[in-house]
Amino acid sequence: MLLNVRKTLRTAPPSAVFGLGIIAIYIFVAIFAPLIAPYGQTEIVDLEFMPWSSKYWLGTDNIGRDMLSRIIYGARNTVGIAFMTTILAFLVGTTLGILAAIKGRWIDQLLSRLVDVLMAIPSLIFKLLLLTAFGTTIVNMVLIIALVDSTRVFRLARAVSMDIVVMDYIEAARLRGDGLWRLVTREILPNAAAPLAAEFGLRFCFVFLAISALSFLGLGIQPPLADWGSMVRDNSSLIAFGEITPLIPAVAIALLTIGVNFVVDWMLHRYSGLKD
What we know:
This protein is mainly alpha-helical.
């Protein structure tokens, strides 16, 4: 298995290698944030807006917390919550999408029309409305974003599964008495894995950007937890003085998004059967 991984990486384009490297760095920082960060994410270490120095590599924020430490902890909070939200959205969307494709009839019509109604509402406005109504806790944010984004996953899972369920091997599996669980796990999911995996990467980017946008607007991850979106908002006044400190969390957001998209593009190209 290790040899296969090495062979795959050797044939990967430079953009995919760059993306994988970025993802690996972010995962490492998120896991070991307490060991890497020089200070705690809520610890007030000095006066507000202290300049860059050997003591505070990126200065301090609007209430005197170390910016470098909060950016490091932001990887754990923002990326970790986005990853959990994407997993939940995929569990809901994929399950209902495959169920609609297999069962068809009224189940398919009911789920499809419900998804159409939810997708007709602009997603950011819908999330803002629900968060305002139910509160801006992390649990509510995860559930609301997962619910809204599961509609997009549902559409893809249903479309891919609809193409699979009409194949001869699905009919043969039904004739030999395979149940719903065996059909899904043995026949449908293995054949739908490539597009779903690519969609997972893209959906993670959308969820990650949505959480950052909501935090920037004050309805995402709440203080005192470190979050890149709220860090841009809290320190935006420094831009008027020519300071680039507020842009560093924005660069962290953009860099991860670019890295994930590079990997997704490579996966789509690799599993599509296309050759350079």
